[in-house]
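Practice problem: Glutamine synthetase family protein
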Amino acid sequence: MPTGQRKPAQHRNQDFSMSANYTFDDLKKDVAEGRIDTVLACQVDMQGRLMGKRFHAEYFVESAWKETHSCNYLLATDLEMETVQGYKATSWEKGYGDYTMKPDLSTLRRIPWLEGTALVICDVLDHHTHEEVPHSPRAILKKQVARLEAMGLKAFMASELEFFLFDQSYEDARACGYRDLQLVSGYNEDYHIFQTTKEEDVMRAIRNGLQGAGIPVENSKGEASAGQEEINVRYADALAMADRHAIIKNGCKEIAWQRGKAITFLAKWNYSAAGSSSHIHQSLWSADGETPMFFDKDGRYGMSELMRHYVAGLLAHASETTYFLAPYINSYKRFMAGTFAPTKAIWSKDNRTAGYRLCGDGTKGIRIECRVGGSDLNPYLAFAALLAAGIAGIENKLELEAPFVGDAYHGKDVREIPHTLREAAEALSGSEMLRAAFGDDVIDHYTRAARWEQEEYDRRVTDWEVARGFERA
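Answer key — structure tokens:
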């Protein structure tokens, strides 16, 4: 067996039956009858990762279901868990105190790929006031959802996730310095059935595992590069979809790791490979979720006036929201012409060269797809930023520009996606719309995160620089 490879775990609860609507009473019964012995209590960090504790299930159902605690540095670190200085909310001077983690029992679910395990997502509260921490990703999204509710509206969203699958384990990839990695396929496998058959041990486990965790899976497919995969799940209300997205990413990694393989959600893992996206489909419905508010059978393409204002808001504030769709230096290396990753923040009808694509025109399923985001985004922040921009368009009755027609990569004098993180960070910091929607402290917090990412990159020496200039400079 290759180094780092592990046999798939044998799970006592691996029946993969759907655990949607899994309740606290269900958990208590599973604990009492010995089916569940571990509960993962997770908050979502700034990077969209699950952070938290593994509780013995008996203790969780007795006590910890009410609340637990975490260090507040979890919402002030970078990818490497560095304690970044310059945040107002927490610092060495303030002593890095606690936050309260409040389990949202509506998110409770069994995790079929982990033996005897359930998971719950927690809201992050101030330790003293028990108010939600404003810069917590889940709180940011909930605030925008509440704004829509006050308008009698409900947002439904779906995020498509792409990733690359490797034959090596994470341990082997790290040991070889992430060089000479072996993809699971040797050629472009977009929609390719035979090649994806060779990957079914992992992808079938992912589909069935997510389905068993209460995440309705639609399909998986090969994507537009060697070793690239896509997983698609059914749309949901914005908060539920963000929760699903975070669990999907963590679950895909765990399931691949169990089988001695590795997955990356880097937006651009290799210069010669396609980037990995997280396209976000979005629509607004009536508060009861019954009436599609984006649809007007008499409107052009079936677009209602409300939808036109919403899309106009997305476009007007596209540069300001880009950081939340592309949060790292690497994210901007995905935006390359001719790669199906957009370079222009314009809208078009069923046109994959545009940053925003109209889908389902003329039907109740009409929606706008944001193609800007990479697979490295934090779904809570991305969804919240898009909703805030759309709400601004509705409130200000912004007029929608004409749709772009043709190849947007070669469009002249049209709105472009910021080329660098530095540019996106400045647009974020200067956004009056986002400051009004999220609050000054929240925007300052994430501007600091963006600038730290840039500062760290600016002082690093890359392999490319050394190979290019070692002898010739």
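Discussion: The domain at 143-458 is CATH 3.30.590.10 (Creatine Kinase; Chain A, domain 2). Students who identified this feature from the tokens alone can consider the problem solved.
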